[in-house]
Design goal:
This protein is mainly beta. Helices cover 7% and strands 55% of the residues. It has a 22-stranded antiparallel barrel. Strand 38 and strand 39 form a beta hairpin. The radius of gyration is 30 Å and the shape is globular. Pfam families: CarbopepD_reg_2, Plug, TonB_dep_Rec_b-barrel.
Length: 777
């Protein structure tokens, strides 16, 4: 009996222990939380922490993470982040655990953190962005002027107030501009239609060279410009920035203010408001004022941002409004007058300084609304849905003979709606993108619109996958787009002239369908921590725009008469860009070598043998043509730290372009250019914004053009000198003030640029003294 009792007690104890052990083994309600830091002690966001059992999490912007529903026992945990060495842990988990993870930077992959960023979304393309000091130097300038410090960038436009960016010789509808994640859609088809973007809204400006048709869609033959703001700071309370820019040439300036913060009741809800005002009078060349070239601008925007663990909501609204004058000497009455003015090369009239803006002039407003939702399905998968609404209202005024000059000659309203959905899982992305666009000419102008009314419907789908094998990274992508264009508008029967000399009108209706595939393949290889190579080959396409197909009339904004061609086909471009990146403690060099074949390239050819005389005046004729073209060239950017605070840096670009169908040069291709300078950084703490800089700009004469193919030969080469001095004052980590004094065109050089449509009649801007003050709090 005693043995039986002892056995019973022993069995009961063993069963109890087994039950307790089983309960312990099935206790899966524990958590592991902690923080991920760099080896310098800074929080590291977007690090991925996962266990062998399949649990995973990612760190937030403060480096915090949490793994939930972890079972007791041994847990093998791995923490990874691009640009840092992976870290593995083996933990005996018996209760809730707090962990501190420190990751060491991996020098050979650290640059990939920038290459594979949320903005660029590509690893093999050539990506360039402005530094802090460069961004401060260009505050108050237009978007096109702001990007001139990037190699391979130039501008095309009219004078000093209408400027648009050019990437490797391509511009307008061959460049996509992403404005806060939305594809900017305006009347960008004209050389005098500058992008309706306030650069102050974009804290980050970057240029992606190469054919980027897969990720961004049709029209990205030349590249992409990404303008994006920083995320709203919801942790520092109320903050903001004030920018004041004054300039001597034009006797005006720019005032910008931004305020952001959150609310105590909803700490995850951030807000931001900002506004920009600009006013300039007639600008002055080296020795005379250019009449009616003033600018007035008022822009404002507001944003709301809500983030929680899995969701991110953003709402953004902006309004860009500008009124700017067109040089009155470009609108001429007779054939003899225009020929005499081109021969003279400068205005016959003398103009005084004035802030008034009269006809000819432009008045443009652009409204943009963005709503986005990003859902984090798991640490490796997220879904993003993005809706955009844009309304671009352009009015162009000319000097009228009978009616009031307050009645516009052109009144166009372009409304665009877009809806994108992108799914990302690990290294793979899939996306659907759609766009509906309606262009209406407002009646009552008393003129025939240069382009007809049209409806445009576009649908695209793409996929991109990235591979990472030690030092080699690669990406492969494909895309398909379909576009439907429906037009209706009145046109003249120029081949049927009545006895009284009048020309009858007829109603033009037409539909066109375009579709094409795009593709990309690229690699990134690290030879060493100092030397990397990127190579990207991309296939992109672009359907002809409505103005290229159907324009037939005076383009009042540019003082030209444009003639379209209804038989134009889509452009197809194949671009190959190779980039070498070399970086040491003393030197930083980036070299881009590019070549692009564009089949059925569309361009506006000036016809010097014909000048169209109308009741509105006499205008040069530009006719749209189409041939195969080949572009190739190289862009170089370098910085060398000489010691004792001195740096020497600059950019250089060469570009060649040929019409291979005719064996001739193409018109309006940027000439070779070089800009370089010496800087002395005198701040005690090596502050980037404390410096004195002398810079030199050189643009060669464009000798690669067809004789007698333009109204005037390309102007001579020119040299310009610039001077900058900057100082930063820090009160604490949150408050700082940067003051910059600059003198551009220091020697007041009279010059013309081949890419300026006003070069027929006038010179570029003369000496310009700028004072720029930025206060961040």
């Amino acid at each position: 009996m005693q043995n039986r009792g002892f056995l019973s007690v022993l069995l009961l104890v063993l069963c109890t222990c087994a039950i307790q052990e089983g309960r312990a083994q099935h206790n899966c309600e524990l958590y592991i939380k902690g923080v991920v830091l760099t080896d310098g002690g800074e929080p590291l966001a977007d690090a991925v922490i996962h266990t062998a059992q399949g649990r995973s999490a990612s760190s937030d912007r403060r480096g915090h993470f949490m793994l939930e529903r972890v079972c007791q026992g041994e847990v093998r945990l791995t923490c990874t982040h691009l640009g840092y060495r992976s870290r593995e842990y083996s933990l005996q988990v018996v209760r809730d655990t707090v962990l501190r993870v420190v990751l060491e930077a991996d020098a050979i992959h650290l640059r990939d953190v920038e290459i594979i960023g949320k903005q660029a979304e590509t690893l093999s393309a050539s990506i360039h962005r402005l530094s802090r000091s460069e961004a401060q130097q260009v505050r108050g300038k237009t978007l096109g002027e702001s990007l001139l410090d990037i190699s391979g960038m130039s501008t095309i436009g009219m004078g000093n107030s209408i400027v648009k960016p050019v990437i490797n010789g391509l511009h307008s509808n061959r460049i996509l501009i992403m404005n806060n994640g939305i594809r900017q859609e305006g009347q960008q088809w004209g050389a005098e239609h500058a992008p309706e973007i306030d650069p102050f809204v974009a804290d980050r400006l970057e240029v992606i060279k190469g054919a980027q048709g897969v990720r961004y869609g049709a029209d990205a033959l030349g590249g992409v410009i990404v303008a994006s703001p920083h995320a709203i700071n919801t942790e520092g309370g109320l903050g903001g920035r004030i920018d004041v820019v004054g300039q001597s040439n034009g006797r005006g300036g720019t005032l910008h203010g931004m305020l952001e913060g959150n609310t105590k009741r909803f700490p995850k809800l951030g807000w931001r408001v900002q506004a920009t005002g600009k006013k300039l009078g007639n600008y002055k060349s080296a020795d005379y004022y250019v009449g009616n070239t003033g600018v007035e601008e008022l822009n404002y925007s507001a944003a709301l941002q809500y983030h929680d663990r899995s969701n991110k909501f953003d709402i953004f609204y902006s309004r860009f409004g500008t009124q700017l004058g067109i040089f009155v000497g470009a609108h001429i009455g007779t054939v003899e007058d225009i020929e005499a003015r081109i021969q003279h090369g400068r205005p016959f009239e003398e103009y005084d300084f004035s802030y008034s803006i009269s006809a000819p002039r432009q008045k443009v407003t652009h409204d943009l609304l963005k709503a986005s939702w990003k859902y984090q399905i798991d640490p490796k998968t997220n879904l993003e849905v993005l809706y955009g609404f844009q309304r671009n209202h352009r009015k162009e005024y000319d000097v009228r003979r009978v009616e009031s000059d307050d009645l516009p000659m052109a009144d166009m309203v372009l409304t665009t709606q877009s809806l994108d959905a992108i799914l990302k899982r690990g290294n793979t992305s899939f996306g659907l993108q759609s766009l509906v666009q309606v262009n209406n000419n407002t009646p009552g102008t008393g003129t025939t619109p240069i382009i007809p009314n049209f409806d445009n419907y576009t649908l695209g789908a793409f996929g991109i996958h990235q591979f990472h094998i030690n030092r080699l990274h690669a990406e492969l992508g494909a895309r398909y787009d379909f576009k439907y264009l429906d037009v209706a508008g009145y046109r003249y029967r120029r081949d049927e002239v009545n006895e009284d000399g009048s020309i009858e009108q007829y109603l033009l209706t037409d539909t066109r369908r375009f579709h094409n595939a795009s593709g990309t393949f690229g690699v990134l290889y690290h030879f060493s921590p100092q030397l990397s190579w990127k190579s990207n080959i991309g296939l992109a396409w672009r359907a002809p725009s409505a103005n290229e197909l159907y324009s037939d009339g005076v383009h009042h904004g540019s003082a030209t008469y444009e003639v379209g061609d209804r038989q134009l086909r889509s452009e197809k471009g194949l671009k190959w860009v190779n980039t070498l990146l070399f970086e040491t403690e003393r030197a930083n060099i980036t070299l881009d070598v590019h070549a692009q074949m564009i089949y059925d390239y569309i361009y506006a050819q000036p016809n010097p043998d014909t000048i169209r005389q109308t009741i509105r005046g006499t205008f040069p004729i530009f006719s749209y043509r189409q041939h195969d073209a080949f572009f190739y060239g190289a862009d170089l950017k370098w910085t060398y730290r000489m010691g004792a605070g001195f740096d020497y840096g600059g950019t250089a670009s060469v570009l060649r372009a040929r019409n291979i169908s005719l064996g001739a040069y193409l018109p309006y291709i940027p000439a070779d250019r070089l800009q370089h300078g010496v800087s002395w950084h005198f701040g005690e703490d090596g502050e980037e914004q404390d410096y004195i800089r002398f810079a030199h700009r050189f643009v060669a004469r464009q000798t690669r053009y067809e004789a007698n193919s333009d109204y005037a030969a390309p102007p001579p080469a020119y040299h310009l000198l610039d001077f900058y001095v900057s100082r930063q004052f820090n009160w604490n980590a949150e408050k700082r003030l940067v003051a910059l004094l600059s003198v551009e065109n220091l020697l007041n050089k009279a010059y013309k640029d081949y890419m300026d449509r006003f070069r027929y009649f006038t010179h570029q801007i003369g000496r310009n003294i700028n004072l720029k003050v930025s206060y961040k709090f």
